[in-house]
Design goal:
This protein has 19 helices and 26 strands. It is about 35% helix and about 25% strand. The radius of gyration is 25 Å and the shape is globular. About 55% of the residues are buried. By secondary structure, the protein is an alpha/beta fold. Strand 19 (about 345-355), helix 11 (about 360-370) and strand 20 (about 375-380) form a beta-alpha-beta unit. The strands form 5 sheets. Strands 3-2-4-1-10-9-11-14 form an 8-stranded antiparallel beta sheet, covered by helices on one side. A 6-stranded antiparallel beta sheet has the order 5-6-7-8-12-13. A 5-stranded parallel beta sheet has the order 18-17-19-20-21, with helices on both faces. The structure holds 2-deoxy-2-amino glucitol-6-phosphate. 2-deoxy-2-amino glucitol-6-phosphate binds next to helix 9.
Length: about 625
């Protein structure tokens, strides 16, 4: 979704910081970008459709150099096509005010009518421009910038994060407000910064303040003040961020996705190792979270998530029901929130999210809380809204994930689900210490096993398979049991980055309809591991092969490899841990296919990293 940055500095030279911030936020996905600065008391704006390079070219004349206040934006179009004129910042009628925005102003049509009647001429098709005019109008009536922002925002409905600058406001150079999408602010001795994502602040400081819904922040060079929409001062805590600016760089890799796939041995170790108590055969989560008392009270779990995180939650259902005997429902967050759900007493809502800022997941979790659920989350972003609103938190410690296609965050989420299943099983007495120890040892061995999967010969083998299948008519990814969601995730990864049609399906369901699609142009990727459904999956592979499909078997089940003909051998592990290992070749297969097809792997078309609107 849209990226927002802003800076005010005692010394001149804010443009470089804005572009650097936008560069860091590029991964969120965007279709145009723009900046506004105030230089010598005058508002100067540049905006361009397309990549940041287009904006940089438009800044070559140096006219915006030397300003000490500015805002910058990467836009992901919602209202109005991607174009120069719809790009942000937008200005009010007088040209004094410039505003950038992430989110949606829902009542923009009626406000537009009101402004049209007032003689305002609109230069764009966006909902954003309306609010720039509202602020401008308030300032024309004598309000200061912060008061004008508060007054204008009291008139709008919707979810938004905005940042605004105005000419002739030396005391309050930069104002931002949050009602929904995230905003992070920070003051250093001689400057202050804002961004829609903590990564945008890391080049300047690692001490940040997360704004809450209903906050308005006023930033000056070295100062920061937060109020509510009525202007009352509110206190917000400063958080120290462990991520370093270098964590979000490419570090010599051709793509973030490949870099992040290769980080998985370390990530899995970070997620699991320090939480293992091998003596007791148990899991200990920092700060006494997920303790015995809270876990014994859990009668049912409702997983809420989207996309890849939902697939991790589906694996979590098999693990938790299998090991802890607690019933688990899994729902798309976007469906749960509108289906008037019934939650029974003792329900724990478990939100799973890499970013912790996904609008649907946040809304669904808030609804579950309203309905009386205790709220837990598995999340990768320590200071995120999801984490701040949860009662129990299990951080995945995967480090910043920049590639739009989630890889390391997914396997870390699955590992976190294993930890949670063990914790619940031990607290409830359904899992013996010995069985828990076996699983913990299995988790400990994953690092070496993943390193093997990422070794040159295995990667080369996967690359050669990618060459053979890169022109297939379509793909089916099949799996059963705990590996069924792995098949769903394999298909999602491939379509996200290669734009090939791929479907994930429960292998046993193929014969109930989709098998009609099988012909020699279709590639069937079957995921299997020794265990209860292994032989069933092998028969399902036989069924599609005998109808002309080309089968590729992924996993450690030799019988499936033999039937399929082509295979990617995965080291053997406990069946409950096999989703983690089986996912890795699927990530590489998608990566190589997308690369061979010349796709923009880290910035796939139409996608945004963090989906902060409905
Ligand atoms: C994964 O590759 C995605 N691009 C997407 O499905 C993502 O997992 C989903 O939007 C949820 O994001 P979150 O984990 O940040 O909540």
């Amino acid at each position: 979704m849209c990226g927002i940055v802003g800076a005010v500095r005692r010394e001149e030279g804010v443009l470089g910081a804005l572009i650097e911030g936008l560069r860091v936020l590029e991964y969120r996905g965007y279709d145009s970008s723009g900046v506004a600065v105030i230089k010598d008391g005058r508002m100067l704006v540049r905006k361009k459709e397309g990549r940041l390079e287009n904006l940089e070219a438009a800044l070559q004349d140096g006219a915006l150099e030397g300003a000490s206040i500015g805002i910058g934006h990467t836009r992901w179009a919602t209202h109005g096509e991607p174009s120069d004129r719809n790009a942000h910042p937008h200005q009010g009628r007088s040209g004094r005010v410039a505003l950038i925005h992430n989110g949606i102003f829902e009542n923009y049509l009626e406000l537009r009518e009101e402004l049209l009647a007032d003689g305002v001429e609109f230069l764009s098709e966006t909902d954003t421009e309306i609010v720039a005019h509202l602020i401008d109008r308030e300032m024309a009536q004598g309000l200061s910038l912060p008061d004008a922002v508060r007054a204008a925002l009291r008139r709008v409905q919707g979810h938004y994060a905005v940042a605004v600058i105005a000419e002739d406001e030396p005391e309050t150079p930069l104002v931002c407000a949050r009602q929904g999408p995230p905003l992070v602010v920070a003051a250093t001795p001689n400057a202050a910064y804002l961004a829609s994502d903590v990564l945008g602040l890391l080049p300047h400081t690692n001490k940040v303040v997360y704004l809450e819904d209903g906050d308005v922040a006023v930033l000056g060079a070295g100062t920061l003040q937060v109020t509510d929409f009525a202007g009352q001062k509110v206190e917000r805590e400063e958080h120290q961020i462990d991520w370093k600016p270098g964590d979000s760089g490419l570090g010599g890799w051709p793509h973030y996705m490949l870099k992040e796939i290769h980080e998985q041995p370390d990530v899995l170790a970070r997620t699991t190792l320090e939480r293992m108590d091998l003596d007791k055969g148990d899991v200990v989560i920092e700060g006494g979270q997920f303790g015995n008392e809270a876990m014994r009270a859990v009668q049912r779990i409702q997983v809420l998530a989207c996309g890849t995180a939902l697939h991790a939650g589906m694996i979590g259902r098999y693990l938790i029901e299998g090991l802890a005997r607690v019933p688990v429902d899994v729902d798309f967050a976007s469906e749960f929130r509108y289906r008037n759900p019934v939650l029974t007493a003792g329900t724990m809502a478990l939100a799973i999210s890499q970013s912790g800022e996904t609008a649907d997941t946040l809304a669904a979790t808030r609804l579950a809380k309203e309905l009386g659920a205790q709220v837990a989350c598995i999340c990768n972003s320590a200071g995120s809204t999801q984490v701040r609103e949860a009662d129990e938190v299990l951080l995945t410690h995967a480090g910043p994930e920049i590639g739009v296609a989630s890889t390391k965050a997914f396997t870390a989420q699955v590992a976190a689900c294993v930890l949670l299943a063990i914790r619940l099983g031990r607290a409830k007495g359904t899992l013996s210490a010995d069985r828990a120890r076996e699983l913990l040892h299995g988790l400990r061995n994953l690092r070496e096993q993943i390193e093997h999967l990422l070794s040159e010969p295995v990667r080369e083998h996967i690359r050669s398979l990618a060459k053979q299948h890169a022109r297939a008519k379509g793909f089916f990814f099949l799996g059963r049991g705990v590996n069924f969601p792995v098949a769903l995730e394999g298909a999602l990864k491939l379509k996200e980055i290669s734009y090939m049609h791929a479907e994930g399906y429960a292998a046993g369901e193929m014969k109930h309809g989709p098998i009609a699609l099988i012909d020699p142009g279709m590639t069937i990727v079957a995921v299997n591991a020794p265990g209860v459904v292994a032989d069933k999956v092998r028969s399902n592979i036989e069924q599609v092969k005998s109808r002309g499909g080309v089968a590729l078997s992924v996993g450690s089940h030799q019988g499936s490899h033999k039937i399929a003909g082509q295979c990617i051998e995965v080291p053997e592990t406990d069946e409950w841990l096999s989703p983690i290992l089986n996912s890795i070749p699927l990530q590489l297969l998608s990566y190589y296919i997308a690369d061979l097809r010349g796709c923009d792997i880290d910035k796939p078309r139409n996608l945004a990293k963090s989906v902060t609107v409905e």
